């Protein structure tokens, strides 16, 4: 019976336990399993063995990389979940369980009237409700009923309290100092900001900067006739002083006082102390966003007035020099 030849790849596929050093070229195996089988040459056998080993190593390497990738993905997912959890405000007296920017009420009628005699509607966010229960307003449920134009009946009080407390905001129980109430107390924040923006536009368009600058630099209201009431150095000092006040104002980071929305205001960030920052925040809270806008617009008008005085004095000086 002629011996049969077994290709190396088949040999290693079905009998992987055969070692290359056991093979004898052109000889028969003494093992019963390989009786009448002609084993391949040793060099061919070793070549097939090395090929299988290389493939096995590549597979092992890919599996190792896959495991490391899965571990990395799992770690990133865990970090992402933790970050999302940390960003969610905790339910307490100082933090709302809802996003501060989301509307608590989509439409609340304001108190300011327009030319048609009607009041506009404004959204009230969870953040605004939270600020209302804190200092300086310290509003109770009865105050929120007034703010939202709701009748003071038991069902309205209970429903409103439930809605506020379910959002994670704790209503105060101590008595408010109503002597601290002003016309700003029950202005909605969006309403107060709109009022300040309109005030800023009116200041910019209508304040008599040029007539005042003309009289201030003519000598009629300061010193002897024909003398300059202010020097260029003095005006420059005043202008720099006002500009620095604006820089302080630009450091106000109150959530309802975004100064940069006003086109007439040009400020830069200034490093300020905690006490100044807290003072800006109290001022903005007390006026519900009106104060920062209004104060900054007034400073801008004063800076423009100083610049106009400098311009007129500079032209006067040039005229005098030309006459000489």
UniProtKB/TrEMBL annotation:
Composition skew (Low complexity), residue ranges: 87-102
Entry keyword set: DNA-binding, Nucleus, Transcription, Transcription regulation
Residue stretches making up the Transcription factor AP-2 C-terminal domain: 106-308
Main location: nucleus
Coiled coil location: none
Annotated spans, Disordered: 81-105
GO cellular component: nucleus
UniProt-annotated location(s): Nucleus
An annotated Gene Ontology molecular function: DNA binding
Database matches in InterPro entries: TF_AP2, TF_AP2_C
Lineage top rank: taxon: Eukaryota
Membership in a protein family: Belongs to the AP-2 family.
PANTHER family: TRANSCRIPTION FACTOR AP-2, TRANSCRIPTION FACTOR AP-2 C-TERMINAL DOMAIN-CONTAINING PROTEIN-RELATED
Protein name: Transcription factor AP-2 C-terminal domain-containing protein
């Amino acid at each position: 019976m002629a011996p049969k030849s077994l290709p190396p790849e088949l040999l290693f596929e079905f009998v992987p336990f055969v070692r290359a050093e056991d093979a004898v070229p052109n000889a028969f195996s003494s093992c019963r399993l390989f009786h009448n089988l002609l084993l391949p040459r040793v060099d061919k056998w070793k070549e097939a063995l090395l090929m299988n080993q290389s493939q096995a190593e590549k597979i092992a390497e890919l599996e190792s990389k896959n495991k490391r990738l899965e571990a990395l993905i799992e770690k990133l997912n865990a970090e992402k979940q933790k970050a999302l959890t940390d960003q969610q405000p905790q339910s307490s007296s100082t933090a709302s369980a809802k996003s501060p920017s989301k509307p608590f009420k989509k439409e609340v009628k304001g108190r300011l009237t327009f030319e048609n005699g009607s009041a506009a509607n404004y959204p009230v966010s969870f953040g605004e409700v939270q600020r209302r229960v804190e200092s300086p307003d310290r509003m109770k449920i009865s105050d929120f009923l007034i703010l939202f134009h709701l009748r003071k009946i038991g069902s309205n009080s209970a429903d409103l309290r439930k809605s506020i407390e379910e959002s994670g905001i704790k209503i105060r129980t101590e008595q408010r100092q109503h002597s601290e109430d002003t016309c700003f107390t029950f202005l909605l924040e969006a309403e107060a900001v709109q009022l300040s923006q309109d005030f800023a536009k009116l200041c910019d368009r209508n304040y008599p900067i040029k007539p005042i600058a003309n009289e201030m630099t003519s000598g009629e209201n300061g010193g002897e006739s024909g003398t300059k009431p202010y020097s260029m150095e003095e005006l420059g000092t005043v202008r720099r002083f006002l500009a620095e006040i604006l820089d302080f104002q630009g450091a106000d980071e109150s959530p309802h006082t975004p100064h940069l929305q006003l086109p007439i205001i040009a400020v830069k960030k200034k490093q300020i102390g905690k006490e100044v920052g807290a003072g800006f925040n109290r001022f903005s809270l007390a006026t519900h966003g009106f104060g920062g806008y209004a104060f900054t617009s007034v400073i801008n008008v004063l800076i423009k007035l100083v610049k106009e005085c400098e311009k007129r004095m500079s032209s006067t000086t040039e005229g005098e020099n030309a006459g000489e």
